[in-house]
From TrEMBL:
Principal subcellular localization: membrane
Pfam families in alphabetical order: MASE1
Annotated source species: Streptomyces zaomyceticus
Region ranges (Disordered): 295-321
Alphabetic keyword roster: Cell membrane, Membrane, Transmembrane, Transmembrane helix
Start and end residues of each MASE1 domain: 1-275
Record carries keyword Transmembrane: yes
Protein name: MASE1 domain-containing protein
Compartment(s): Cell membrane
Chain segments annotated as coiled-coil in the UniProt record: none
Record's bilayer topology term: Multi-pass membrane protein
Spans through the membrane: 21-50, 70-89, 101-123, 143-166, 178-208, 214-232
Length: 321
């Protein structure tokens, strides 16, 4: 299992490095998928796969530069941050199906915003300690690093958890709607991102549609596609990011990715919770209707063995009048 986690972590790291930006002379990634892979792996497989995360982090760093003493600090921080996210989520009673709003909020504030402070602070603090980064540049680089790690958790981890869960029923008409949503997304999103008039807001109706109709699976796929496409355009300096400085590109991109991830994740969690509550109420009403039918017919209400009526009967199976 750890070896599979290592391979997935390294592959996600190489993909994440394709969309890197330079902030104050330091290379950062607006979305760092390995953090999402690590958190999802820990939630699905348990804490025993942490060596796979550490090895994957080491291999990603080794692919960029020659390993040195500082590599140990970076590997440890990249391993400890997902572990802390896992422990915090488990303590908060997080459910992997994310069928409650509290699960979405826990992933955002504990697994994302909270735990990723560790990797960002250690990584940027190390740059300052080495002297490769001035103290005045700490906060801009720290913010970019922290948001990149957090976006990896918020965009990648929920999608992996949903894909690893049981598949639900999908009617033919839902396939048609899903195909129409996918086609609309493929046409409208590039238009919104590539337009120099900054029309990124056109993405959010698609996110809402996906969340309302397809919950986490649809909304997170839509949000991830939008974020990846927007990140690619931002690194190219085209479309809505034309004629912007590196800092302005990072600020605008972080604001969009964060808004898209939070909209998709929290709205889908609310819809999933409401649907689960509605199903529970419907089952309760059906059970109550069955009980009332038996009472109206003069029959004892159905109940599991060991109820008050079955205990009241004597061993011979007859009741006293």
């Amino acid at each position: 299992m750890s070896l599979a986690v290592t391979v997935c972590y390294y592959a996600a790291g190489r993909l994440g490095l394709m969309g890197r930006l330079v902030v104050e002379g330091v290379v950062v990634t607006p979305i760092w998928p390995p953090t999402g892979v690590a958190v999802a792996a820990l939630l699905l497989l348990g804490a025993r796969v942490w060596p796979g995360i550490a090895l994957g982090s080491f291999l990603v760093i080794a692919s960029l530069t020659a390993p040195g003493p500082t590599t140990v600090v970076t590997v440890v921080s990249n391993t400890v941050a997902p572990l802390c996210a896992f422990l915090l989520l488990r303590r908060a009673g997080f459910r992997r199906d994310m069928a409650r709003l509290r699960d979405g909020l826990s992933l955002v504030f504990l697994g994302g915003f909270g735990a990723m402070l560790i990797s960002a602070t250690a990584g940027v603090g190390l740059q300052v300690a080495k002297g490769s980064l001035d103290k005045s540049e700490f906060w801009p680089v720290w913010l970019a690093w922290w948001v990149g790690d957090t976006m990896g958790v918020l965009l990648v981890a929920p999608l992996l958890l949903v894909l690893a869960g049981p598949a639900g029923r999908f009617r033919v008409r839902r396939w048609k709607e899903a195909a129409f949503l996918g086609l609309t997304t493929l046409v409208l999103m590039p238009m919104a991102v590539l337009s120099p008039m900054s029309m990124l807001f056109l993405v959010f109706p698609l996110l809402i549609w996906a969340a309302l109709r397809f919950q986490l699976a649809g909304s997170m796929l839509c949000a991830l596609f939008a974020s990846v496409l927007t990140t690619y355009e931002a690194t190219s300096g085209r479309g809505a990011f034309l004629h912007l400085t590196d800092v302005e590109i990072m600020a605008k991109l972080q604001a969009f990715n964060g808004s898209a991830a939070l909209t998709a994740l929290l709205l889908a969690s609310v819809i999933t919770e409401q649907r689960a509550t509605r199903r529970s109420v419907r089952r309760a009403c059906q059970e109550l209707a069955e009980v009332l039918e038996h009472l109206a017919a003069g029959e004892p209400s159905p109940g599991p063995p060991g109820t008050a009526e079955s205990r009241a009967a004597p061993p011979g199976g007859h009741r006293d009048p």
